[in-house]
Every structure is written in structure tokens, then in C-alpha cells.
Amino acid sequence: MIGKIQELSALERLSGGDTYVHRLHPMVKLFATAVFIITVISFGRHAFILLIPYVFFLIFLMILSKTPHLILFKRFLIAFPFCFFAGISNVIFEPAPYGLISFFTIMLRAYLCVMAALLLVSVTPFYEIANSMRRLKIPGIFVSIFEMTYRYISVLLEEVYSMYIAYSLRNAGKKGIRMRDMGSFAGQLLLRSFDRADRVYNAMKCRGYTLDFVPQNRQSFLPKDIVFFIFVCIFCLTFRLIIPFIPTVLLS
Amino acid sequence: MHMTDALISPAVGITMCVVSTAAVAYAVKKNVSEKKIPMMGVMGAFIFAAQMIDVAIPGTGSSGHITGGILLAAMIGATPALLSMSAVLIIQCLFFGDGGLLALGCNIFNLGVIPCLIVYPLVFEPLIKKNANPSKITIASIFAVVAGLQLGAFGVVLQTHISGVAELPFSAFAILMQSIHLIIGVAEGIVTAAILCFVLKMRPEVMECISSRETVKHHSKGVIIAFAAIALLGGCVLSQFASSNPDGLEWSIERANVFEK
Question: Fewer beta carbons within 10 Å, N or C terminal of chain B?
Fold first, then answer.
């Protein structure tokens, strides 16, 4: 649980960096990530070799933004078991070489997509992500909920952690909450959260909160943003549309 | 039960994103009051924290955690619950690598739209009817959570199958997923019931499913069924387009084989 809180703050610290990638316009980063992910998943089941350039591209961006690979990779491992389970079935149900190829392709797709999303948030501060959502005309009410959920996760995790410690001290240190105690355990947390939400709302109102919040420091697009976006698009399209057909052209 | 980018095709991913966006937009339209924002935000964080609590499953030695869609809907109402769940899923996707950006549509649909907008009004509310008591809440919770998880798990199976990335045989995968989620569903249903009964005893006035039932009555069932239908149809139709053009490598392998012969 404490690990989760630290994970959140680790990404937040990374996003405060000051490199070429960090300074790009957040919208450009968001759309570039979308282009990258859609390109990667548009490849077929056996496109293992064709995906390798994208790994280099991702690593290149990580080096450029001074993002440590290990922190992001640990998080990728969370998503790993389900992909592994689904992928291993390809080894069983497909004829010999293809099954193995498609298994590794699924693993590589998972790696690329998860790492791309994690890289996006580790080079973009949280308020920039929320502001980009507002600029994309996502309703303010939803963005506010998103922001508040994010902010209160660490508060409530700390609360759960202290309740958990108190519980296990009185429970001879056994792992987990017993099922019959779960009602009052989570119920207490629920009621506390309810009261907290009330207090938060009153505090927000006292400080003049309204829904029509206008994001400050509206950053405009610079030439470097456009250059970066075009570069990402050209890279993705080249390795998706042109390179895969060169061998067949040569063969025929 | 998070769907991942690695297993879906762009057609399925984009279709589900469109459907989930429509559902969230519908929920936003229903909750324009700013008074509810802190409630939805803090309850989103609560669900996230509650998912971290390991519950010991009796007799197995293992532990699990709740997903919380039905719990949230019973506490704050169906559409606010969907907004909270969506916020939590976006955070899990962005900051914890759970799922993926394009799979977000699938995840919001399976874990948010299905329990909050479909199962809660169609199963939970009719079972409670008026004057809720602990036994009614227990039955409603178990049925609703089981139904929600069954449909959600089936959603995962269907989305995986239509995408065609994994070679899993449809029936075997479906049987496996449904049976695992049946067990999980019963356990989660019991835990959800315990939490709701506790709140019912302590502070019944804060529960949406009791205090203001008239405001959540039949939120246009037509809309709900339309979402489900669009998702299914869209996925099937688009996947036909997607698979009618063979992918570059498959095409080249084919060509290479012809060439060898």
C-alpha cells in the first residue's frame, strides 16, 4: 500500500523534469502517444520483427527525456500476467513456429503500449494532463472528478494503511482482513470518505470554487512541437506502411 | 479483469472508446451539479483504496479484492458511480500501467458501464424495491455483483475474440472466464453486502439506493440497451472490415510461400 503511494509520487517527480520532451506542448505529447499506440496495435499477429524499430524509438525518447527505464518497467509487470496467459494459448493452438512468434508479438505489443502511456505521464505534469483534457472539450465536471480522485488516492491510501496496521496488530499479524470483518472495516472507511467529501466541498466553496474554471498559462504551439509531432507521424507511418512491403517487392 | 492494448485490434478499441465516451457523456449530462463533484472524486479515491484491501478468502489461504462498481452505485447512484469508476480506470491506466490507453474504452465499458448503468438499475434496484432491509440488500448485492462480473468477463471474452489477436478458442476461454468470475462474484457479493449492511445500520440516510430512489428510477432503459447493442454491432461490423485486408506480414508470408512453390 505504501508502495502504491510511492509509485504515484515517483512518476510525479519524474514529470517535473526539464528536458526537450518535458518542454513539448502537452497536447502534442498526447496525440503523439495516441498515434504511436494505434500504429503498434494495427500490426498483425506475427509482426514481431516489424515492431522492433518502435522499441528503439521508445527507448530513444526515454533517453532523451532522462526517464529511468526500471521504474516504468516495474509497472509494466502488473499488466503482464493476463497478456502472458492469453499469449501462451497462441503457442498451444497455433502450428509450431507461428505460435511462438505470435506469443512474443503479444508480449512486445503489451510492452510498447503500456510503456508509451507511462512515458506520457512521466514527462507531463498532472495539471497539464488535466488542462489538456479541458482543452479537448471534455466536460469540466469530469475533469474535476478525475483531478480530485487522483489527489485523494494518496490521502485515502494512507488512511487505509493506518487502519490496516491497527487491525493486524489486534489480529496477531495475520495477512488480510477476515471476510466477516470486511463490512465494518471498509464501511468505516466509506463513511469517513463521505464526511471528508462534505468537508472538502465546503472548503472549496469558501475559497470561491466554480465549475467554470479556466486553465491558466495557456501554452501555444511552437515550431518545435509541430516538428516533433510530424516526426512521430512520419516514423510510425514509414515503419508501418513502407518498410513491411520492401521484402515482397524485392521477392517479386 | 483489465483488458489490455496488446490483445485488441484498433477497430474494437476505437468502437468501445466511442461507446464508453457516449455513456460517460450521458452520465455527465445527468450530473451537472457541482455539489456532487467532491463526492464523486473522493468516492473514486475510496474505491481505489478499497481495491488495495486484501480480503482473506476462507478455506483457500488466498486473498482477493473488490472491484466495487455495484457498491459505488448503491452508495452514490448509478451515473455518479460511472463517473467515479471512469476516473479511477483512467488513473490506473495512466499511472499504474493497468490496461492501456486504447483499451480504456473496453475497460470503462466492462467495469463501469455494465455494473453501474446496466446491472444496477436492472438487477439491484428491482430486488431492493422499497424499504430495504439487510436480507434484501444481501440478496440484491450478491445477484447484482455476480451478474455484473459475469457480463464484464463475457465482455472481455467477446472483445478478445473479435479482435483476433490471441488464438484462444472462444468456448474454452468463455467457460474458464465465466467460472472463475462466478466464484469471484459470489465472494465480492458477500463483501459488498457486508459493507452495505454496515452503512445501513450506521447511517442509512447517506445511501443513494435508499434515500432518493425516485430520482434514479428507470434511467431510460432504452438508452441502456442501446449502448449494449451498439457495442456488439459496432464491434462485429468493424472487425469484418479490419480482417478483410490481410496484414502486411501475413500477406508477405503468403506471397513468399507462393514464390517458393
Answer: C
The architecture in CATH of the region B5-237 reads Orthogonal Bundle (1.10)
Which chain B residues touch A93 with a CB distance below 8 Å?
167-169
Contact A152 B45 (CB under 8 A): yes
pLDDT tens column, A84-143: 877 887 888 777 778 888 888 888 988 898 899 889 989 999 888 888 888 888 888 888
Please report residues of A whose CB lies closer than 8 A to that of B95: 7-8, 11, 118, 121, 150
pTM of the model: 0.84
Q: What pLDDT score was predicted for residue A242?
A: 80
Residue B259 pLDDT class (50, 70, 90 cuts): very low
pLDDT, chain B, mean: 80
ipTM of the complex: 0.85
> Which of B83, B84, B94, B238 to probe the A interface (max A CBs under 10 A)?
B94
Q: How would DSSP label each residue in chain B?
A: ----GGG--HHHHHHHHHHHHHHHHHHHHH---GGGHHHHHHHHHHHHHHTTPPEEPTTTS-EE----HHHHHHHH-HHHHHHHHHHHHHHHHHHH--S-TTTHHHHHIIIIIIIIIIIIIIIIHHHH-SS--HHHHHHHHHHHHHHHHHHHHHHHHHHHHHHT-S---HHHHHHHHHHHHHHHHHHHHHHHHHHHHHHHHH-GGG-HHHHTGGGGTT--HHHHHHHHHHHHHHHHHHHHHHHHS--HHHHHHHHHHHHH-
**Is B194–A82 a contact, with Cβ atoms under 8 angstroms apart?**
no
